[in-house]
Amino acid sequence: MILAIASFLTILASTVCMPIAGVFSDKFNRKILIVVVDSLQAVVTLIGTILFQFDLMTIITVLIFMSVRSIFQAFHMPTVAAITPTMVPLDKLIRINSISFFFVGVIQIFAQLVAAILWLIFPIQIILWVDIVTFLIALIPLIIIKIPSVKSKPKTNIKAEGKSSFFKEFILGIKTLKLIPGLVIIIIMYMLVNLLMMPLKVLMSLYVYGVHGGLAGHYALTLTFFQGGMVLGALITFVKKKWPHKIRVVFSNLAIGMIGYIILALAPKGSYIIISIGAIIMGLTFPITSSLITTFIQTTVPPDKMGRVMSITSTLTISTAPIGTILVGPLAEILGIPYLFFFSAILGLIVAGSIWIFTNIRKVDFDDTDAIKKVNEKINNIST
After folding, report:
1. Is domain 2-145+164-381 classified as CATH 1.20.1250.20?
2. S-S: 195 plus which of 200, 297, 307, 324, CB 3.0-4.6 Å?
3. Three-point CA angle 265, 70, 15, nearest 5°
């Protein structure tokens, strides 16, 4: 229940703040915004380290600590996503997005192993210094790299310009999102999928420790295989230059990921290899799907509206997660964690199949450049 509450608060904080972050990303210098929010996150981590050092950290303080960090992440993620298409040619976006997933996956593989080793050797207040030190290291290239600034096109209606507000900017992002073919259906699908993935996100550690009697090393092994799958998926996306029938690939990957979820759920007690196989299958599908969808949005939306669209998309996608975190605890108590994982995966397959059969999403063509140009023109012409 404590894990569920922690996940609920962090996701809720991120969900509430992300639309605001999108407007900030389009209105202010994105480089400065990243420096500020990452610096604040490092300061919060330092405060947490001090509280642990003097044995002042309580469960409530930990929950506040995690929630505040998630707020800064809500500003960081859409801003980075909005920066990418301003620095990369459109025809290279899929490969660049896949490279991003590749490096994140590689880092996370080593992070899980290092975290498990550090956890066995050092107290938490020492381990948290890793976050502060790596922030200082990352700050150096961030300051050096030149990030293009994007300015909105001047408005011809002076009266409308004077009445510009956060609400109007947010509505503009919603209008932009609705013009992108198939995106609303994909968002609805991922809202449901996210809801069904919450048991895994919240209870994976308890699944390894409690159900299978594992230790920190076993948990780290599972996460390492998941990240290894992400690395492999990112490499496949990078090597394969062309992706015909992208929408079919997205739905096929979702189905394959749910099969990996089922394998993980049905693993016999202590069978960490089977758990890891399920994890690597799930990890494999994530970078392929995300790279294709992210690239489609980045090639369709004008740069000056990218932050809003990315943040609204992310917000809607994870909006069901707080509900999921509330339900996870009681359902796990009633069904048991393995059955909760299994039924969630089956429902995920049903959701993907139903949306494919009963909507027109299968007719959406991510490769139709003429249609994308027309959508881009419509987006440029919309007003609040």
Report:
1. yes
2. 324
3. 80
